[in-house]
């Protein structure tokens, strides 16, 4: 969340930044809540001071045998104690109101983020790779998968409902191969440490990575009060939770291959065919925890690590900078990587890499201390897909399809496929 002290000192800057995001001004309301809280704290301090003073006066009254004054002071202290107890409850309420209001304010975009309303205003930075030129009309992934008998949406719907997929045989192995390839690349060449992370998390973890309280409807909640992770960003980023990290140990770079679970609230009618938008999918996530002066360089590095996955797979893609209106709630700047899907004839998102500054660190109380310094600072956090495994499967199927319905396996994946070079097609 944002720093209320900074907001008090820069109300115009806050409202200007929110306007760039298309959000309503909030500085006046936040300052009003903070002033009410500060005024109440001042009153509590005055009461505590008077209680201490009255206690000293009791001693003096008893020393001079002025029992009437002593009894009056004792009664006054009892009244002050009751008022302080009531005031402490009011303090908790005022603290909660301010914290809740701050928790619902999005992060502020960096100055170089393009201003816009939605994805139409995103700015393309570069295109990489050659799009395949087919001598036939390319099919979409679900047409290829169903024709092979290795992708089953109907049976998945009978078991779990819509937006689930069953993969079988070579396609199931190909999805697994993609995840393993990505993990190996990031851990052996990009400096990330693999983590086996929990899939169920507490409220506090989701608050730390800003999914709660604003986006509860996008999540799956268990009957025991835990939540299924929407992305491994949640447990990986919370590795820094309530810690003071030595600056010498930064940056922390961690990665995990996990299933992800999303309710897809509000996406009715979007990508209803195939496995582009699922309630359950696999993703390799990258998270970096850095010092405050290193996060922007780390953002570029992380994006290049995600791009390298697509380069090794031989997939054409483009990188876009998200505009202020399309950027995620906790991000200060986001690059989306969109892979070319011949079946759709369009670029579709396969990775999103964001720098969050200290926004999440404040929610998690995640700090670092520079060598020789007593004071601590909030860390900066970054997260990115490295990449979405299901969408990578879709991209490989559509880009490496052959006219007979078979799929050529990209060379980099063949060691993970026991040397198989092609799947599907005529028996």
Automatic annotation (TrEMBL):
<keyword id="KW-0963">Cytoplasm</keyword>
<dbReference type="InterPro" id="IPR006195">
    <property type="entry name" value="aa-tRNA-synth_II"/>
</dbReference>
<feature type="domain" description="Aminoacyl-transfer RNA synthetases class-II family profile">
    <location>
        <begin position="173"/>
        <end position="410"/>
    </location>
</feature>
<dbReference type="GO" id="GO:0006434">
    <property type="term" value="P:seryl-tRNA aminoacylation"/>
</dbReference>
<protein>
    <recommendedName>
        <fullName>Serine--tRNA ligase</fullName>
        <ecNumber>6.1.1.11</ecNumber>
    </recommendedName>
</protein>
<keyword id="KW-0436">Ligase</keyword>
<dbReference type="GO" id="GO:0005737">
    <property type="term" value="C:cytoplasm"/>
</dbReference>
<keyword id="KW-0547">Nucleotide-binding</keyword>
<comment type="similarity">
    <text>Belongs to the class-II aminoacyl-tRNA synthetase family. Type-1 seryl-tRNA synthetase subfamily.</text>
</comment>
<keyword id="KW-0030">Aminoacyl-tRNA synthetase</keyword>
<feature type="binding site">
    <location>
        <begin position="349"/>
        <end position="352"/>
    </location>
    <ligand>
        <name>ATP</name>
    </ligand>
</feature>
<comment type="function">
    <text>Catalyzes the attachment of serine to tRNA(Ser). Is also able to aminoacylate tRNA(Sec) with serine, to form the misacylated tRNA L-seryl-tRNA(Sec), which will be further converted into selenocysteinyl-tRNA(Sec).</text>
</comment>
<feature type="coiled-coil region">
    <location>
        <begin position="30"/>
        <end position="90"/>
    </location>
</feature>
<feature type="binding site">
    <location>
        <position position="262"/>
    </location>
    <ligand>
        <name>L-serine</name>
    </ligand>
</feature>
<dbReference type="InterPro" id="IPR002314">
    <property type="entry name" value="aa-tRNA-synt_IIb"/>
</dbReference>
<feature type="binding site">
    <location>
        <begin position="231"/>
        <end position="233"/>
    </location>
    <ligand>
        <name>L-serine</name>
    </ligand>
</feature>
<dbReference type="InterPro" id="IPR002317">
    <property type="entry name" value="Ser-tRNA-ligase_type_1"/>
</dbReference>
<dbReference type="Pfam" id="PF00587">
    <property type="entry name" value="tRNA-synt_2b"/>
</dbReference>
<dbReference type="InterPro" id="IPR010978">
    <property type="entry name" value="tRNA-bd_arm"/>
</dbReference>
<feature type="binding site">
    <location>
        <begin position="262"/>
        <end position="264"/>
    </location>
    <ligand>
        <name>ATP</name>
    </ligand>
</feature>
<feature type="binding site">
    <location>
        <position position="385"/>
    </location>
    <ligand>
        <name>L-serine</name>
    </ligand>
</feature>
<keyword id="KW-0067">ATP-binding</keyword>
<dbReference type="Pfam" id="PF02403">
    <property type="entry name" value="Seryl_tRNA_N"/>
</dbReference>
<dbReference type="GO" id="GO:0004828">
    <property type="term" value="F:serine-tRNA ligase activity"/>
</dbReference>
<comment type="pathway">
    <text>Aminoacyl-tRNA biosynthesis; selenocysteinyl-tRNA(Sec) biosynthesis; L-seryl-tRNA(Sec) from L-serine and tRNA(Sec): step 1/1.</text>
</comment>
<dbReference type="InterPro" id="IPR045864">
    <property type="entry name" value="aa-tRNA-synth_II/BPL/LPL"/>
</dbReference>
<keyword id="KW-0648">Protein biosynthesis</keyword>
<feature type="binding site">
    <location>
        <position position="383"/>
    </location>
    <ligand>
        <name>L-serine</name>
    </ligand>
</feature>
<feature type="binding site">
    <location>
        <position position="231"/>
    </location>
    <ligand>
        <name>L-serine</name>
    </ligand>
</feature>
<keyword id="KW-0175">Coiled coil</keyword>
<dbReference type="InterPro" id="IPR042103">
    <property type="entry name" value="SerRS_1_N_sf"/>
</dbReference>
<dbReference type="GO" id="GO:0005524">
    <property type="term" value="F:ATP binding"/>
</dbReference>
<feature type="binding site">
    <location>
        <position position="285"/>
    </location>
    <ligand>
        <name>L-serine</name>
    </ligand>
</feature>
<comment type="subunit">
    <text>Homodimer. The tRNA molecule binds across the dimer.</text>
</comment>
<dbReference type="GO" id="GO:0016260">
    <property type="term" value="P:selenocysteine biosynthetic process"/>
</dbReference>
<dbReference type="InterPro" id="IPR033729">
    <property type="entry name" value="SerRS_core"/>
</dbReference>
<dbReference type="InterPro" id="IPR015866">
    <property type="entry name" value="Ser-tRNA-synth_1_N"/>
</dbReference>
């Amino acid at each position: 969340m944002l720093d209320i002290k900074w907001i008090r000192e820069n109300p115009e800057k806050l409202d200007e930044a929110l306007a760039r995001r298309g959000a309503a001004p909030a500085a006046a309301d936040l300052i009003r809540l903070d002033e009410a809280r500060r005024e109440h704290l001042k009153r509590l301090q005055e009461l505590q001071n008077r209680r201490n003073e009255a206690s000293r006066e009791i001693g003096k009254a008893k020393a001079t045998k002025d029992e009437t004054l002593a009894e009056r002071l004792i009664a006054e202290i009892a009244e002050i104690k009751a008022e302080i107890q009531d005031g402490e409850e009011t303090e908790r309420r005022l603290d909660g109101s301010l914290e809740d209001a701050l928790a619902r304010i999005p992060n502020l975009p960096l100055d170089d983020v393009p201003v816009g309303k939605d994805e139409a205003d995103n700015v393309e930075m570069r295109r990489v790779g050659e799009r395949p030129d087919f001598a036939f009309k390319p099919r979409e992934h679900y047409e290829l998968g169903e024709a092979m008998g290795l992708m089953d949406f109907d049976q998945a719907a009978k078991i779990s409902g819509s937006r689930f997929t069953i993969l079988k045989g070579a396609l199931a192995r190909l999805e697994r191969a993609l995840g393993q390839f990505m993990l190996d690349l990031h851990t052996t060449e990009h400096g990330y440490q693999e983590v086996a992370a929990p899939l169920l998390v507490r409220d506090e973890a989701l608050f730390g990575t800003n999914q709660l309280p604003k986006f509860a409807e996008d999540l799956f909640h268990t009957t025991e009060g835990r939540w299924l992770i929407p992305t491994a960003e949640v447990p990986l980023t919370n590795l820094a939770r309530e810690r003071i990290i030595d600056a010498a140990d930064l940056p922390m770079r961690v990665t995990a291959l996990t299933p992800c679970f999303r309710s897809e609230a509000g996406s009715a009618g979007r990508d209803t065919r195939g496995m582009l938008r699922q309630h359950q999918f696999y993703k390799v996530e990258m998270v970096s925890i850095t010092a405050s002066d290193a996060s922007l360089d780390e953002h570029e590095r992380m994006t290049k690590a995600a791009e390298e996955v697509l380069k090794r797979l031989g997939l054409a893609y483009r990188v876009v900078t998200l505009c202020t209106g399309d950027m995620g709630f906790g991000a200060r700047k986001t690059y989306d990587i969109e892979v070319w899907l011949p079946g759709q004839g369009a670029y579709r998102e396969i990775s999103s890499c964001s720098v969050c500054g200290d926004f999440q660190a404040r929610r998690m109380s995640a700090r670092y201390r520079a060598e020789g310094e007593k004071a601590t600072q909030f860390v900066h956090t970054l997260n990115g897909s490295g990449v979405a495994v299901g969408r990578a499967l879709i991209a490989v199927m559509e880009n490496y399809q052959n006219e007979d319905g078979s799929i050529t396996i990209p060379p980099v994946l063949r060691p993970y496929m026991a040397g198989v070079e092609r799947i599907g097609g005529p028996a």
